[in-house]
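task queued by scheduler; priority normal; single chain, no ligands, no partner chains; default sampling; output format set to structure tokens
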Amino acid sequence: MSTVSPESEPDVDVIVIGGGVNGTGVLRDCALRGLSAALFERNDIAFGASGNSSGMIHGGPRYLTYDPDVTHTSCLDSGHIQRIAPHLLFRIPFLVPVHRSRFGSRLALHGYDAFFELYDRYQPLKRGRPHVRLNADDLRRLEPGLQADAVGGVTFDEWGIDGVRLCMGSAVDAIERGAKVHVHTTVMEVMLDGERVRGVRWRDRISGETGQTTARVVVNATGAWAPVTATLAGLEPRVARIRPGKGIHVFLDRRLTNYAIATTAIDGRQVFLMPWQNMSVLGTTDDDYYGDLDEVLANGDEVRYLMQAVARVFPSVSQARAIGTWGGVRPTLYGWGVNEDKLSREHEIVDHKKHGADGLYSMIGGKLASYRIFAEEMTDVVAERLGNTAPKRTHSSPLPGGDETVDPFSLCAGIQLDALAASRLEYRHGSRSPRVIERIKRCPPEARVVCDCEPVTEAEVRYVVEGEMAKTVDDVARRTRLGLGSCGGMRCALRCGAILADALDADPSYGQRSALTFLRGAAARRASAVGSLQARQEALSLATLSSQLGFVEKEER
């Protein structure tokens, strides 16, 4: 292992490894408390589970049956997150239909009613509305597309959010308070001086540059990668053991309903159809995962599992157009012999001093809805170790864009910007959306829409490249949802690549390669949902495009 002289003053107080919601949350909390910090992310901000979750800051009523503390923590943190990032939250009312069966459907309806009375006790924590019991006529009026054999149902409230924008807000706020963020930079080693952590050695995966950064504390916030990251300090993977659980989602090209619909799959697991921003989402699975964490793809069986379950209660979903999938791996706490769906969503902090790496901590478990509390608990440990007594502020200090309300229609005044484009811009950037508008006023051609499906303007693409560390077309798509609509990026990826290369002052071929990488990844994620004929057509189109641009890979020759 590399060693660093203990006499030298460290570069920063804290190094965070991992750019998901927990890592960026800790980075921001450290910066707010006046600690110097740096974050290293091997891929991109929110590349893993944080950017590929169900996109809800929810209370998790199902946890109430076996892990009520998780429900309480999630609802409590949901209220805090709504306070600091109001522009990113949108209400999702759920319907739970109860269908006729020989097992006593009326009794089941009474049971659901009683269960959600219990859940109502948590609703004030997250500004949720109390549940309502519905009869069959009420249910049909609210959602005519439901199967007609329902005897009634109940409603309950949850909140949707863009997980990537949440992570980006924490990262940008930390940077503006002096923290350093390195994306596409892999940590090759956690350096030790004897049994004490002294920093990390790293390599920029794009430029090839290498270096080392020293620190008093290193936080392993790499989620499902946590056991692998622990080995970088010479530790056994088991000291940061998790049980990785794969969850996939299928997304459709439009909103099919204004209500989310919760139902059960063939194995009794709860699944849902949910309106999410400008599309519909089916989710989610929960299966043990042993594959490549950098290539989490849905398979055909998983897609059929979700489609079959939802079609039983909302038949028209089978005629809807599936345009893609996404998948992530939950870093759930390890448990042997427990069904994946029943694993605890609690979290814990592992101090590796007992393993011979004093100053290294691993964040294990957790979920998007309670990230802020987990990050605060981790920062409390760091602050106590470093003698920092600054107050906690992440529950009240707004994230960038969350400090005031902006009327999206006012953004269109005096410029050629579509009202829908302005509305989507305001959702992603909140009170900072006028910064993108100022770009357009200085350079009117930047009002041009690059991606029609979302829509995303050239000004926003340049804004996220220059101000939000986007280095590839994939990065831009993650921050703006460019190319994630019905065209799959075929109409906008190359244009985005050209803007990207220009903004980075890179060779045009860099943008073209980046666009092709994005398109290939998008096609791979779509393949299981669109069927074999469209998948073959897309493969042919990509091969033709690659050839036209002169980028014929060896395996294609």
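post-processing summary
- The radius of gyration is 24 Å.
- The CA atoms of residues 493 and 515 lie 5 Å apart.
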